[in-house]
Amino acid sequence: MAIRVTCEKCLTRFNVSDKFAGKKGPCPKCKATIQIPDKTEEVVVHAPADDGPKDATGKSVLKPIMREEVRVTKLGIFAVAGSIVAAIIAAVVIRSMESVPGWIPPLGALLLAPPLVWSGYTFAREQELEPFYGRELQARVAICSVLFALLWALYAFVPAYVMDYDSVAEMPIGAVLVALAAMLAVGTLISVTTFELETGGGVVHAGFYIVGTLLLAMLAGIPLFAWA
Predict the structure, then answer these.
(1) Does residue 211 sit in the same domain as residue 152?
(2) Could you list the residue ranges that cross the membrane (predicted)?
(3) Which of 136, 90, 135 minimizes the C-alpha distance to 109?
(4) 0.90 cut: is pTM over it?
(5) What single string gives the DSSP state of each residue in 39-76?
(6) Nearest to 123 by CA among 187, 200, 13, 38
(7) Domain shared by 99 and 197, yes or no
(8) From the CB of residue 184, how many other CB atoms can be counted at a distance below 10 Å?
(9) 186 assigned to some structural domain
(10) Do 158 and 94 fall into the same domain?
(11) Structural domain for 20, as ranges
């Protein structure tokens, strides 16, 4: 039986007859002297022992546990797409209104959260880990949606109590970036906690919601900062 040998100098690999085991000889390529390993030094990898129950033919009756893959269904895609279209239409309608009632922005932030949270989780989660699904996923989406909607309360809190602005409409771009950074930091913590995401995935997940709601608010003409 041949012994697999690697020259330490030129890294050439070749087979040597087992009758030379434990001896020294020249490398056929670079002529450097190499030590042929002894047969006792070979590492043999054995298949794991199968000590489980077997049937009459000797085959194992145990079946491997297969990871259940949660795939995005067509219904889910249509639901998210329909929610986005409905949100855009609602934003256009709100923009045409002479005055926007104060309850519309928080309600919109809450209604937009579930589809954005769910769709964001599908691509922000770690693909190698078992995903959440069923009622557990629904519960986590609901909790995260409420907490995400409250992020806009944080956005309103920063200018009013930290930066001494009368309203968010007076905030310059610099102040807006500070407020959005605070929202993203808190949102990342929410995502990591509710969906057990890595920090990077949490940033993507929270950022997806923040950017989505911000764009729709701008489309609806809701003043979130000072343009000039």
Answers:
(1) yes
(2) 75-97, 103-121, 141-161, 173-195, 207-227
(3) 90
(4) no
(5) GGG---PPPPP--S-B-TTS-B---PPPPPP-PPPHHH
(6) 200
(7) yes
(8) 18
(9) yes
(10) yes
(11) 2-41
Instruction: Report the pLDDT averaged over residues 20-28.
Output: 84
**Residue 210 is encoded by which pair of tokens?**
């923040």
User: Quick one: pLDDT at residue 68?
Assistant: 52
Residue linked to tokens 């992020």? 151
Question: Does residue 104 sit within a domain?
Answer: yes
The tens digit of pLDDT for each residue in 50-72 reads: 666 777 776 766 666 555 555 55
| Same-domain status, 199 and 89 | yes
Specify if 64 maps to a domain. no
Residue of 75, 1, 86 lying closest to 37 (CA atoms): 1
In tens, the pLDDT along 92-127 reads 888 788 777 878 888 888 888 998 898 889 888 887
Q: Give the chain's domain count.
A: 2
Residue of 214, 145, 152 whose CA lies nearest to 183:
152
Q: Specify the DSSP class assigned to residue 184.
A: H
Neighbour count for residue 205 (Cβ, 10 Å): 29
Domain shared by 27 and 81, yes or no: no
Name the residue among 85, 50, 80 with its Cα closest to residue 64.
50
Burial zone of 136 (CB within 10 Å; 0-12 exposed, 13-18 middle, 19+ buried): exposed
Q: Which two tokens stand for residue 96?
A: 């045409």
Please give the structure tokens belonging to residue 119: 């769709």
Chain center to CA of 96: 38
**Contacting residues for 218 by C-beta, under 8 A, at least 6 apart:** 224
Using CA atoms, how far apart are residues 23 and 166, in angstroms rounded to an integer?
88
Give the total residue count for the chain: 228
- Residue 33 and residue 90 in one domain: no
Residue 224 belongs to a domain: no
